[in-house]
Design goal:
4 helices; disordered N terminus; mainly beta; 82 strands; repeat; Immunoglobulin-like; eight-stranded mixed beta sheet; muscle protein; six-stranded antiparallel beta sheet; about 5% helix; Ig-like_dom_sf; cell adhesion; 9 domains
């Protein structure tokens, strides 16, 4: 390989190719002429670099077995040596810590032979799993090894996108004896009768021989005769000794020839069992007939042979002779001759002359990536020639880089894009000779035209690392020492001499040290990638105006999520005064993804605007957050009572001076008797106004009242009690004032006492008079006395249950008492439907204060409208009462069978004529089998006049009947169908209806709302509601519009749509407005309630 004459900048001289690994195979009875030592790859190369590209062959696996980083293997199988007939085991171990399932392991011999299908008597595959170490162990055991088991083996393990492979060698030595040498002509084989590959060369028996020594010529042995005369147990020994690979085909022919032939009447002498001739030679077939007059025909593979220059026929007496001239491989076949009805057959074997190598291979030097051609010439055109690399046959194929070109006698082995792995000894072998040569592939000096450059990229932008080298070779990209894996976001581009690593939408984890290493060169191109992201403040959890409310005395821990790369530095401030990190009451705490403002014990003065500033090398961010400290309101001023009545009063008060930073929601009012110490709550719903009217007090008893102010935080302390007050009723005005008599100087008046006098009693009357047309009245000097002889207008007191229709069943008693008022004793008149009442059927009893209507046994004729009229003098009062007497209804009029299909019957009927003086509430349907006529209820309380009866027994005959039903019950009789319904055995085929898939998607909706709740301080309280929605909504609880997150005082449950918030041992400060928020993809819904925590007096 030529050396470079000049070294330029960024030029790396190609390292010398490593010495080839010698073959470990040995020929029995011989020793290698020269000892060869194994040489490992140069230690200067890092362990992660390979020595260039090569096909997935054994040589490449051997060279890289110790230089590649194992992806999955913990322990690789190692090569070994075994004697014939002994056992050997190969072990591979795979660690399963990062694997979700068992990896797939395959064992191969050579390049492609999968040993899984060969498991049996001589090969066993096992696998075990150790749970404590989480290691899979895979074993391949070879039992009673044979010589042909030697060679290169490979173990592959795969798991999803991960792959690992390892090659190892097995050497098999004979225990005693030597192996007979094999002449090149023993490779002659025939794979079957009449097949395309008949006469092909098989050198599988010669693959383990680097060079074949000239053997002394031995006399030719007729293997056919040996097989004919040998025992069946010796067939394999003979085939192995003489290199026969198509033993099965030869045995088939031998079997046909061994058939006991009957004595022929047509042939005196038949053909020999087999004939053998060299290619191009002449063969003679002779038969002798018993009767020379018989006609003879010759056949080849069943087709008659006609005379020609190739086939010549002769007759000599009783002999019939056929000559075949210029025999070729196509003449290798079965022949037979017929005479009359008889025939005899034979086999012709054509031997091809050995092919000699006329022009030897020459040693060649090349660079990586170049096209290499190894050329030789043989003695015959289009001869069968086999190529070998280090003693192993080269088999070209669509996926192979090796191509074999044949031009007459010239044979060329072409290697496209040679690599260092192609450095080896190549040999060509024919039936009459062989030739070998060495190929050395080196590396060209590599120049770096464009190196990688360091990059600083914003988050989400594209990263593009680009370099250019002088050679069009592949390479590997690593990040922080680990191989880069391609994905949808990360692409590795190789176009000619340019290599790119493109990362779309850069992420933080993409930051690191990237290195590109060209394959087979000890050179690296490094670059650093720095991903930055401007700082961001995430305020999604706050209100629209970024306000945070905290209760005075409680601890505030305001955690604000932040982002940025590198992590930004956060500074909190208030009124241009920075808030430092430390142990103060107000302090800041910094974390990688958030910044927290902590106020241990919130005070009223802590309310205000707080600023947070973020800064890193990518930029800055600012935000303002308003913190509002709320507290209980101050107690109101003592209320004042402005007006009193018999059991009520009107009180007023002023709002408290300080509302606690939260608007006053309302007031609670309590009262107590002056001599008592027990206060009683007067309202459970907040009073929104500053006035209130307490009621239901005892007249003449002194009372006191007080006020509580309520805001979103809770209830204030009570106000001072009001001044004591006593409810007293003022008498109502006198009634029925009339002038009785008039004289020249006096007027006599009469009136009735007031309807309501009150607890203070009636002391007397005050009389006032005025002149006609004047608006000012003068008080009389005399006190009057009331007169009681004026008439009282009548008034009927209808009981509440008689203000609606009075319903009774037939046979029940009717007894109605209607009280009335009026003086003197009024006159009473009863009428029914405008006519006088028949007193023989209905009894009427009257007294001074009430009237009674009595019916001992009600009938339907007693139903109607009853009118009562009460009259006192010229005053008249009227009232009406509706009485309805009901009975059981009659049966339906007609019941019909509309249709019968399958196991179903459709019925219809008409409502009854007599509904029993009440609305028909339903129907009851019964069925009966014609054989037993036992009735069974099918449907009850059915409202329609048609129905479908299902699940009837096929083959039965049914009758049906229907009862009517009202509020009194079922009709006494039922109407039955006139005809019966026969359920035929051959019913109609019912086709199930096709329903479209129902869309269960639904926005969140509360099916049971939250309700305002009162809790006792120190006892757990729960808030419950139920919600439905699809997809299942996410539930968030909030107190005073602040989300409840990780607070040990609260526990949240959600089961089957029922959402529960448990408040552990609440205090008055836990009172307020609680909100439950449900969110899914289709919408958001909220519901609120108020919680009040009461403190029980000790």
């Amino acid at each position: 390989m030529p050396e470079p004459t000049k070294k330029e900048e960024n030029e790396v001289p190609a390292p010398a190719p490593p010495p080839e690994e010698p073959s470990k195979e040995k020929e029995a009875g011989t020793t290698p002429a020269k000892d060869e030592e194994e040489v490992s790859p140069p230690s200067a190369l890092p362990p992660e670099w390979s020595l260039g590209e090569s096909p997935a062959g054994e040589e490449q696996d051997k060279q890289n077995a110790n230089s590649q980083v194992s992806v999955l293997f913990v322990e690789k199988p190692q090569g070994g040596t075994v004697k014939v007939g002994e056992n050997i085991t190969f072990i591979a171990k795979v660690k399963a810590e990062d694997l979700l399932r068992k990896p797939t392991v395959k064992w191969f011999k050579g390049k492609w032979m999968d040993l899984a299908s060969k498991a049996g008597k001589h090969l066993q595959l096992k696998e075990t799993f150790e749970r404590h170490t989480r290691i899979y162990t895979f074993e391949m055991q070879i039992i009673q090894a044979k010589e042909n088991y030697a060679g290169n083996y490979r173990c592959e393990v795969t798991y999803k996108d991960k792959f690992d492979t390892c090659s190892f060698d097995l050497e098999v030595h004979e225990s005693t004896g030597t192996t007979p040498s094999i002449d090149i002509r023993s490779a002659f084989k025939r794979s079957g009768e009449g097949q395309d590959d008949a006469g092909e060369l098989d050198f599988s028996g010669l693959l383990k021989r680097r060079e074949v020594k000239q053997q002394e010529e031995e006399p030719e042995v007729d293997v056919w005769e040996l097989l004919k005369n040998a025992k069946p147990s010796e067939y394999e020994k003979i085939a192995f000794q003489y290199g026969i690979t198509d033993l099965r085909g030869m045995l088939k022919r031998l079997k046909r020839m061994r058939r006991v032939e009957k004595k022929s009447a047509a042939f005196a002498k038949i053909l020999d069992p087999a004939y053998q001739v060299d290619k191009g030679g002449r063969v003679r077939f002779v038969v002798e007939l018993a009767d020379p007059k018989l006609e003879v025909k010759w056949f080849k593979n069943g087709q008659e042979i006609r005379p020609s220059t190739k086939y010549i026929f002769e007759h000599k007496g009783c002999q019939r002779i056929m000559f075949i001239n210029n025999c070729q491989m196509t003449d290798d076949s079965e022949y037979y001759v017929t005479a009359g009805d008889e025939k005899c057959s034979t086999e012709l074997f054509v031997r091809e002359p050995p092919i000699m190598v006329t022009k030897q291979l020459e040693d060649t030097n090349a660079y990586c990536g170049e096209r290499v051609e190894l050329e030789c010439e043989v003695s015959e055109d289009d001869a069968n020639v086999k190529w070998f690399k280090n003693g192993e046959e080269i088999i070209p194929g669509p996926k192979s880089r090796y191509r074999i070109k044949v031009e007459g006698k010239k044979h060329i082995l072409i290697i496209e894009g040679a690599t260092k792995a192609d450095s080896a000894e190549y040999s060509v072998m024919t039936t009459g000779g062989q030739s070998s040569a060495k190929l050395s592939v080196g590396l060209k000096p590599l120049k770096i035209l464009t190196p990688l450059t360091d990059q600083t990229v914003n988050l989400g932008k594209e990263i593009c690392l680009k370099c250019e080298i002088s050679e069009n070779i592949s390479g590997k990209w690593t990040k922080n020492g680990l191989p880069v894996q391609e994905s949808d976001r990360l692409k590795v581009v190789h176009k000619g001499r340019i290599h790119k690593l493109v990362i779309a939408n850069a992420l933080i984890e993409d930051e690191g040290d990237y290195v590109f290493a060209p394959d087979a060169y000890n050179i690296t191109l490094p670059a650093k990638v720095h991903v930055i992201d401007p700082p961001k403040i995430i305020l999604d959890g706050l209100d629209a105006d970024n306000t945070v409310t905290v209760i005075a005395g409680s601890k505030l821990r305001l955690e604000i999520p932040i982002s940025g790369e590198p992590p930004p530095k956060a500074i909190w401030s208030r009124a241009d005064k920075a808030i430092m990190e430390g142990s103060g009451r107000i302090r800041a705490e910094s974390y990688p993804d958030s910044s927290t403002l902590v106020i241990d014990v919130a005070e009223r003065d802590d309310s205000g605007v707080y600023h947070i500033n973020l800064k890193n090398e990518a930029g800055e961010a600012h935000a303002s957050i308003k913190i509002k400290v709320v507290d209980l309101p101050d107690p109101p001023v003592a209320p004042s009572v402005t007006e009193v009545g018999d059991d009520w009063c009107i009180m007023k008060w002023e709002p408290p001076a300080y509302d606690g930073g939260s608007p006053i929601l309302g007031y609670f009012i309590e009262r107590k008797k002056k001599q008592s110490s027990r206060w009683m709550r007067l309202n459970f719903d907040l009073c929104k106004e500053t006035t209130f009217e307490p009621k239901k007090m005892i007249e003449g008893v002194a009372y006191e009242v007080r006020i509580f102010a309520v805001n979103a935080i809770g209830i204030s302390k009570p106000s001072m009690p009001s001044k004591p007050f006593v409810p007293l009723a003022v008498t109502s005005p006198p009634t029925l004032l009339t002038v009785d008599s008039v004289t020249d100087t006096t007027v006599t008046m009469k009136w009735r006492p007031p309807d309501q006098i009150g607890a203070a009693g009636l002391d007397g009357y005050v009389l006032e008079y005025c002149f006609e047309g004047s608006t000012s009245a003068k008080q009389s000097d005399e006190n009057g006395e009331a007169a009681f002889d004026l008439p009282e207008p009548p008034k009927i007191r209808i009981p509440r249950h008689l203000k609606q229709t009075y319903i009774r069943r037939v046979g029940e008693a009717v007894n109605l008492v209607i009280p009335f008022q009026g003086k003197p004793r009024p006159e009473l008149t009863w009428k029914k439907d405008g006519a006088d009442i028949d007193k023989n059927q209905i009894n009427i009893r009257n007294s001074e204060t009430d009237t009674i209507i009595f019916i001992r046994k009600a009938e339907r004729s007693h139903s109607g409208k009853y009118d009562l009229q009460v009259k006192v003098d010229k005053f008249v009062e009227s009232a009406s009462i509706d009485i309805q007497i009901v009975d059981r209804p009659g049966p339906p009029q007609i019941v019909k069978i509309e249709d019968v299909w399958g196991e179903n019957v459709a019925l219809s009927w008409t409502p009854p004529k007599d509904d029993g003086n009440a609305a028909i509430t339903g129907y009851t349907i019964q069925k009966a089998d014609k054989k037993s006529m036992e009735w069974f209820t099918v449907i009850e309380h059915y409202h329609r006049t048609n129905a479908t009866i299902t699940e009837l027994v096929i083959g039965n005959e049914y009758y049906f009947r229907v009862f009517s039903e009202n509020m009194c019950g079922l009709s006494e009789d039922a109407t039955m169908t006139k005809e019966s319904a026969v359920i035929a055995k051959d019913g109609k085929i019912y086709k199930n209806p096709i329903y479209e898939d129902f869309d269960f998607s639904e926005a969140p909706m509360f099916t049971q709302p939250l309700v305002n709740t009162y809790a006792i301080a120190g006892y757990n309280a729960t808030l419950n509601c139920s919600v439905r929605g699809n997809p299942k909504p996410k539930i968030t609880w909030m107190k005073n519009k602040v989300a409840i997150v990780d607070d040990p005082r609260y526990r949240m449950f959600s089961n089957q749509g029922v959402c529960t918030l448990e408040i552990r041992k609440p205090s008055p400060y836990d009172g307020g407005t609680y909100c439950c928020k449900a969110v899914n993809d289709l919408g958001t819904v909220e519901i609120e309630c108020k919680l009040e925590v009461k403190v029980v007096a000790q």
